[in-house]
Each structure stands twice: as structure tokens, then as C-alpha cells.
Amino acid sequence: VTVTATDSYSGIKSIEYSYDNQSWTTVSSSNFDTNTTTKKVWTPEYTANQNKTLYVRTTDNAGNVSTIKSTNIKIDKTLPTVTLSSTSGGSWTNKKVIVTVTATDSYSGIKSIEYSYDNKTWSTASPSNFDTNTTTKKVWTPEYTANQNRTLYVRTTDNAGNVSTVKSTNIKIDKSGPTVTLSSTSGGAWTNKKIIVTVTAT
Description:
The protein has strands spanning 3-6, 12-18, 25-26, 32-35, 39-42, 50-60, 69-75, 81-86, 97-104, 110-116, 123-124, 130-133, 137-140, 143-144, 148-158, 167-173, 180-184, 197-201. By secondary structure, the protein is mainly beta. The strands form five sheets. Strands 8, 9, 12, 13 and 14 form a five-stranded antiparallel beta sheet that branches. A hairpin with an 8-residue loop joins strand 15 and strand 16 (167-173). The N and C termini lie far apart (69 Å).
């Protein structure tokens, strides 16, 4: 943040800052990047996760106090998390599969949930399909009913641009009945020879 205080008459006496607009602290002159009578520049740096507001004001040598200016300090370096579970547990089933995808982020909040079936090409899940849709938590429950054998990959992105690790589960649905055929060397008739029966299941 760059804070610049100027006064062309009596000159700048101090720069003060606050994080609640009530309790004020005076910036040490040793921290000024520019420190002349009529102009002082202070550039505080912030690196840790935080969500707060910086308020600043300046006082000149005649006792006049400037209006208060402010800016938000919002830093989120923590990856969001995504979890998923399915009604089939990733195993073969002949029933509908419901997958529950839960994305959470306690700092900047969840921006999107993305999904892929090849871990390369990604699509964004529509917020209108979310069962839970708050700033810090979103839940998406896609359903699968047709025969298929593929892998669902999911990830989430927060409002600071951090991307979660990728999680995946198998979608394996088979509603088609298997077939079985059989034949025998005797064709089902009486014989005085050994019978060999061939059973083929597909």
C-alpha cells in the first residue's frame, strides 16, 4: 500500500493508521520512503492471510487533520479444499450414481467448482445446480443414470485464485443384463460318448 501525505503550507507532522477507525497509531518517520517537510510517503507491506481495512489520516504542523482514506487488505494464500463421495463408492452398480462434491474456503471464499472426465479439459459447474451456495461453502451433487465407465475429476478455485488439489472418483454403471449361451457335443440328445458343454457368458 502506498500512502502519500502532502501539505504545501505548514508541512506534514504525522501519518497515522488504524484498522478499526477508532484506535490510531503514528507511523515512525524511519519507515517513510519519502520524508520532506511538505511530503511524506509510507509503503506498508502485508504478506500473511488477512481480511481487514487499513484507515489512514495525516496531520499538518498547524494541527489540521486530513479526511480519512481507507483500503481493504485481503490476502488468501491458503488452498481451498474439495471432497467428494459417491453412492456407489466408485464400484460397479446397476443403479443411479449420485456424487457429492463439497468445496470450502474460510478466507476469500469459493469462486467455482470445476469438473473434467480426462483431467485435462475442465468445465465449470453452474451455481444454479448447487445444493449449498454460500461464500465459504458450495455443494454440488451431479447424478448419473446411463451405462458408463469413466472417471470424474473435480477441483475448486477460491476468490484469490488459489486452486485446490484434484480429487476423483469412478462412475461405473451397468444396467444391461449379461448374456449366457451354451452348447454341447451331444446337442442335448442321448449319447454313449463323453459330453462336453461349452458355456459362454458375455
